[in-house]
Design goal:
With about 250 residues, this protein is mainly alpha-helical. The protein has 8 helices and 6 strands.
Length: about 250
């Protein structure tokens, strides 16, 4: 998913489409929905969770409608991968638990909303941001590991560094790392979900949340990009004969 910043192209696991034009109104809608939706879920009981879920899905479909056609498939891929990831990380592995011990229906579309916000904000961050975020993350993870209170962050930082090996996507991944951390801090603070101190099967410890949790969101973005490579390759191959005929 390619866009530009000061002439520099970056991608999400490979080119997914044309230049994206950020829409401030949609970004404001996404940010306010994430902030207010989690509060409604926490303080409104089960009915509040259902209301938040209905709203998040409505915003998801609004983004599908108002975004370029080339963005619809990546949004859907993000939705599918996010759902699978939540089932595995929460219900199977048991890294964290939502307050009703379920996976709220607003969570999968919520990942798409955050994905959208990251794509809008990424072109605006300075180059220094791309250097400072990984350095700070590595420093924190090392300190936490030495002191034994968040040792899973070392493993998550390794995942983050692997994502950052793709130079075209570094701005996006650093933005997603920070944005998802802010969402994690907010969600755990008001009690929507909680990370378990003891990491199952690995003998590691976790803070609530681990400050390198954003690496999981970066991995989600990479999976979306990799998923899109196949359809894009088919699209290019199908259009090549037409282009050749037009130029001969």
């Amino acid at each position: 998913m390619a866009t530009t910043h000061e002439g520099e192209a970056y991608q999400l696991g490979g080119s997914l489409g044309p230049v994206f034009s950020p829409e401030p109104a949609n970004l404001a809608l996404v940010v306010s929905s994430l902030a207010l939706g989690l509060a409604v879920d926490q303080y409104g009981g089960l009915s509040g969770q259902l209301v938040a879920s209905a709203w998040f899905w409505a915003v998801f479909f609004w983004l599908l409608k108002t975004s370029p056609r080339e963005w619809r498939l990546p949004f859907c891929a993000c939705l599918v991968w996010a759902t699978a990831g939540e089932i595995f990380l929460s219900l199977v592995w048991g890294l964290y638990t939502y307050r009703l011990e379920n996976i709220p229906l607003f969570v999968p579309p919520g990942h798409v909303l955050l994905f959208y916000a990251g794509l809008v904000l990424a072109p605006r961050v300075p180059r220094a941001f791309v250097a400072v975020v990984p350095a700070a993350a590595v420093g924190y993870a090392t300190f936490a590991c030495i002191n034994g209170f968040d040792t899973i962050s070392i493993a998550l930082i390794v995942m983050f560094v692997l994502c950052m090996l793709q130079p075209e996507g570094r701005r996006l991944y650093t933005v997603m790392f920070v944005a998802s951390l802010m969402l994690e801090l907010y969600g755990t603070w008001i009690g929507n979900w909680a990370w378990h101190r003891d990491v199952p099967y690995l003998g590691l410890t976790s803070a609530n949340p681990p400050l390198a949790a954003g690496a999981l969101y970066c991995a989600l973005d990479v999976l979306v990009g990799l998923t899109m490579r196949g359809p894009l390759r088919l699209r290019r191959e199908s259009s090549s004969p037409q282009l050749t005929a037009e130029t001969t």
